[in-house]
Structures
1.
Amino acid sequence: MTTVTMRPDAVNMPDAAQGTDSVAIICGGGSLPAAVAEALSRSGRRPVMFGIKGWADPVSVERHPHHWVALGQVGRLLRLARREGCREAVLIGAVLRPPLTKIRLDWPTIRAMPRIIRAFRGGDDRLLKGVASIIEDGGLRIVGLDALAPEIFVPEGVLAQRRPTEGDKADIARAIQVVAALGPFDVGQAAVVADNHVLAVEGVEGTDNMLARIAEMRRQRRVTARLGTGVLVKSPKPAQDRRFDLPAIGPQTIENVARAGLAGVAVTAGSTLIAAPMEVIAAADRANIFLMGVSEVASP
C-alpha cells in the first residue's frame, strides 16, 4: 500500500467516480465507522469518510476516500459532501459532548448557534437531533444504518456457546424494564442486574466505565452476588431517534463484562450495533459468558 503524506485537513481523492451512490460517514471514535464503510462497499455504495479531528481513528478513516473536519465545521462538511456527490450521511462512532468553547466555528455554524445552544440543554439524543437537523437543512439527509448496513446489527438468538439460565433471563427482562423506564430522561442505554437486583445504570460515563464500577464494587464487597452472576443489557431508549447513537458492543465490552464477574450480555436484536462480530463471539467463548440478541420485550 502506498502512503501519501498530506495536511491534516487535506482530502484523499481516489479515482472512483463521484456520484449519487456516495454516502458520507461522519466518523467519531471506535471501529464502527470502518465496519459501516466496509458494509457499504460490499453493497456497491461508495463511502466517503468525514473524520472528526481528535476522535476518529486515522487508520480507519484513511483506508477510504476521506476528509477531516473539526467539531463545528458544518459548512466545510456540507461543502465537501456536495463535492463528493453525497446526498445521504450517517453519524457513527463515539464523540463525547464537548464544551461550547471547544467547538471550532465556521460561518454556517455561527448562524446556527442559537439552535446548537438549545440542543445542548438536554441529553445526548436531544443534542444529536439538533445537530442532525442543522446538517439536513444544508441538504445532506441523515439516514439510519438499518437501511444502509443491516448486517452490522446483532441478530436475535444465542450467539456464543454458553446459554443463559432461567435466572439470567429474568435478569435480562428486569434490565430491559430499567432502561425503558430511564428512556424519557435521556440518560443511558445500559443496565446491570444480578438476582433481580439493579447493580448499575449507565450515565455519562459510558458502558465500559459502568462495568469498571461493578468490578470495583466487587473488590469493595459492595456487590455480594456470586461471581458469574448478573447480566449487562444494552437497549435503545424507547423514543430514541434510530438514525444515530444506537447501543453498540465490541470485543472490549466482552472483556469488561468478564472483569466485572457477570454471566453474560444481552442486547436488543436489530437495534444494537456490533463491531467485529466474530471477535466478539470468540471473546465471549474464551471468557465463558453468554451473548445473545433479544426482542425489546423480553420475558423471563
2.
Amino acid sequence: MSSANRTIAIVWLSLVLGVLGVAASASAAATGFGAGERAQLSALVRKTIAEGGYPGMVVGVWAPHGRTFVGSFGVRELPAGRGAPLGTRDRFRVASVTKTMTATVVLRLVQERKLGLDEPLSRFYPGVLNAPEITIRKLLNHTSLIPTLDQSTVESLVRVPSQRFDPAEVIGAALTQPFLPPPWGYSDTNYLLLGKIVERVSRHSFAYELRRDVLAPLHLRHTSFDPGTRMPAPAAHGYTLLNGRMVDTAGWTTSYGWAAGSVVSTLGDLRRWTLALARGTLLHARMQRERLRWVATGQPGFEYGLGIFRIEGFIGHNGLIPGYDSAILYSPSTRTTVVALGNSDPALDEPPPQPVTSTLELAIALGHAAAAAR
C-alpha cells in the first residue's frame, strides 16, 4: 500500500467517522492513575487512531500497585451506523503474535526431549537448501535465512480471499525464492515449517498441540486457532485498502499464515498470555533462558529470541495481517504489561522486515507513559 493510498484511506475513514459522530466514541476505565495520566494515555491512543486511519482500537495497560488502564476506542464495523462501538471483549486476529505461542509449543517438545534445539532441519526436510546447517533454533529466531511468503501467495489471497491454503504448498512456493541476506531475516516460512515439524514429532495436529500446551494450561478460553475465514463472535471487523477502497477482511482466510499467524484472541486473554510468555510460566527456567537468548537483527535496538523480541526495554511481539494490527509487550524493569489491538493495517506499505507497526509504537509509548507516572 502506497503512502498516498494510506493518506486517502485516513481521510476517507475520518470523514465517515466524523459524519456519523463516532470519531470520539470511547470507553476507558482506569484505576490508580491520576486524571492527567488517564488523559495522556487516552490521547496517545486517539493520536494513533487518527494518524493510522483505524476504525478503532482496544488497549490495556497493567502496571504495579493496581494501576490499570483499559479502553476501547472507535467502532467494530463500518459504516459506523451499522455496527456497535468496539468492546474490550471483542476478538481480533493477532497475526504474528501467533509465533510466540508456536515457539512455546516447540520449546515444550524440546523439554520433553522429543526435539532438539540444535537438531538439523534435514531430519524433516532434507530437500531444503542448507537443511543440514539450519537448526530448529535458527527457525525459531529467524537466522535460517529461509525466504518468506512469495508474491504469488499474496496475489492469490487477494484474488480469492476466502480460499483455503495448504501450508505445505505455501512452504513449497516460498522455497522457490532466493534465500534472505545474512545475518537475520524475518520469515513466516520458518514458523510454517515449525508447525509441520510439531505435527511430525507429536503425531497430533498443530491445533491440538496448541490447545494442550498453551491455551488449556493458561485457561485462554477466548483464544482460538482459526486458520480459515472463521472469527468467533463478538469479532472486530478488519479493514485494508484494496484498489482504492477500504475492504472488510473479517471473512478473509488466514490459512496461508497457519502456525505463523492464525490465532484469534481478546485483550484479556492476551494480557494473561503476555505475562506467561515473559515470565516463562509454561517452560522450565533453563528453557526460558534459551528463549531469551537474543540475536542481532541488523536493526538498531531490535533483537530477536525464540519467538519473542526485545525493543526499548520491552519484550514481546507484534502482528500484522490484512485488516488487523496487534502488539503485546512486557517491561521486566517496570513490571508493566501492554496490549494494543487495532482493526486496520497501516504499516503494510512498509518494506520487510518492518518490526515497528503502529500498534507496537503505541504500546511502547503507553508503557513508557505508565512508567513515568509512578
3.
Amino acid sequence: MMDSDFSHEPCHLPAILARGEELAIGSRYVAGGGVEGWEGWRRILSRSANVYARMVTRMPIADLTGGFNLIHASALRKLDVARLTSSGYAFIIELKYMLWRQGVTFAEVPIQFRSRRGGESKITSHIVIEGVLAPWRLLLR
C-alpha cells in the first residue's frame, strides 16, 4: 500500500520488502524518518493524530496513519475484512489495529515522506472527524 503521487518514494521499497514481519510500516515517526515540504498545520495534525490514536488504542506503532505499508497475504487472511468500516486515515488505523489484535508481527522502517508533486490533499472535515472517533469505535467493538 503506497501513494502513487511520489510522496512515498519507491527508493524505500527495498528496506520495507526486506523485513520479515507480516506488516512492514514505512514510518515517518521513527528514528531516521521524517516529513519534507509540509506546512506547520499539517505537521501538527499528523503528529497529533498519531499520538491521540496511539494513546486511545495502546498500539505500539509510531506511525498509525501512514499509508506506506507492506502487508503479507497471510496476515490479511487472519482478518474479517467485512468488519473494516472506516475510510481515509481512519481506515489505515483500523486496519493496523485489527492486524495488531490478531497478533501479526510488525516493524517500522524509517522513510522520508515528501509533499506530493501534484494534486491536492484529501483531508476533509469528515476525514478529521472520523479519525477522532475511529479509535474509540475500535475499542468498543
